[in-house]
Automatic annotation (TrEMBL):
GO molecular function list: hexosyltransferase activity; metal ion binding
Protein name: Globoside alpha-1,3-N-acetylgalactosaminyltransferase 1-like
Pfam families cross-referenced by the UniProt entry: Glyco_transf_6
Lineage: Eukaryota, Metazoa, Chordata, Craniata, Vertebrata
Entry annotated with the keyword Transmembrane helix: yes
Length: 308
């Protein structure tokens, strides 16, 4: 009798002990799978590029065979020329190393462009553009300049184009994994927010209007790209929509970024880049972001912008 009882106790103890350790193990390991989840595919089956989702050596070898050139636009007007040195030097360390890159730099002060040593097959062309009084106009006007550049000059010069903010710096690889027909970058503020909190334009009077309940992601205008044809259509459309807004005396809340978001809602990007491809130096880290590739530098807005 006694022996049977203690065997029962022993078995019960084993059961409770094992269940408890199972629970502890589960609660520990479940944090590996939830909470820090990344979405690596959109509902329309476009990949979302995160560290760990691609093999950089394989990707490079595939795109190397295609002998491609990546045009890259950068705008540095007024005091924004101060960002050029870090932007270009860090790009030369991390951006499409080993591929043909042609930067088209638009500035109102060509004399302020620093001397930066370009890597093999990397070239820089500087273009003078008129100064403007409002940063919003500089930002929106990029759509027109990029549209014209692609239409008038790039046809036989490049295969892909990226349009990047200059007040940013590279910290890690940005390479051929980012190439596709139409490429949007998820804004670092909103990647884990519900869509009703995205800062879309909400006034129906603007061409950039996106009604509540619609929208997939909130994309940044600080980096976007794709094939020449697709980015030409994007910039042309956004510039047309911006001008309809001007004629109706309305300016979308985040300027060309609002129009870009509207465009991507109806013309879905074929590839999305995670916020690794545009972080912000001032942001706290996030579990999902294992590597920061490109990041907005901290800046004193009042000091660098021509207006407020
Ligand atoms: C800010 C960013 C702006 C705009 C805005 C959208 O963080 O500085 O350029 O993208 O988010 O809400
Ligand atoms: Mn910027």
């Amino acid at each position: 009798m006694r022996l049977r009882q203690s065997v029962h106790f022993f078995l019960l103890g084993m059961f409770v002990g094992l269940s408890l350790s199972g629970l502890i193990l589960l609660s520990y390991t479940s944090s590996w799978f939830s909470g820090t989840d990344i979405v690596s595919m959109t509902p329309w089956l476009a990949p979302v590029v995160w560290e760990g989702t691609f093999d950089s050596i394989l990707i490079d070898s595939i795109f190397k065979q295609q002998n491609i050139t990546i045009a890259t636009t950068v705008f540095a007007l007024g005091k924004y020329t101060r960002f050029l040195k870090d932007f270009l030097e860090s790009a030369e360390e991390h951006y499409f190393v080993g591929f043909r890159v042609h930067y088209y730099l638009f500035t109102d002060q060509p004399e302020a462009v620093p001397e930066v040593k370009m890597g093999e097959n990397h070239h820089l062309t500087v273009r003078r553009v008129p100064s403007l009084d409002r940063w919003q106009d500089i930002s929106m006007g990029r759509m027109e300049i990029i549209e014209k550049l692609i239409k008038n000059e790039l046809a036989n010069e490049a295969d892909y184009i990226f349009c990047l903010d200059v007040d940013a710096k590279f910290y890690g690889r940005w390479g051929a994994e980012s190439l596709d027909r139409l490429v949007g970058v998820i804004h670092p503020w909103f990647f884990d927010y519900p869509r009703d909190q995205f800062s879309y334009e909400r006034r129906p009077e603007s061409q950039a209007f996106i009604p509540a309940g619609e929208g997939d992601y909130y994309y940044t205008a600080a980096a976007f790209g794709g094939s020449l044809a697709d980015v030409h259509h994007l910039t042309k459309t956004c510039w047309e929509q911006l001008n309809i807004d001007i004629a109706n005396s309305i300016e979308a809340i985040w300027h060309e970024e609002s129009h870009l978001n509207k465009y991507f809602l109806y013309t879905k990007p074929s590839k999305l880049l995670s916020p690794e491809y545009l972080w912000r130096d001032i942001s706290i880290s996030a579990d999902q972001v294992k590597i920061i590739r490109f990041s907005h530098v901290a800046k004193n807005y009042a000091e660098v912008r021509p207006n407020f």
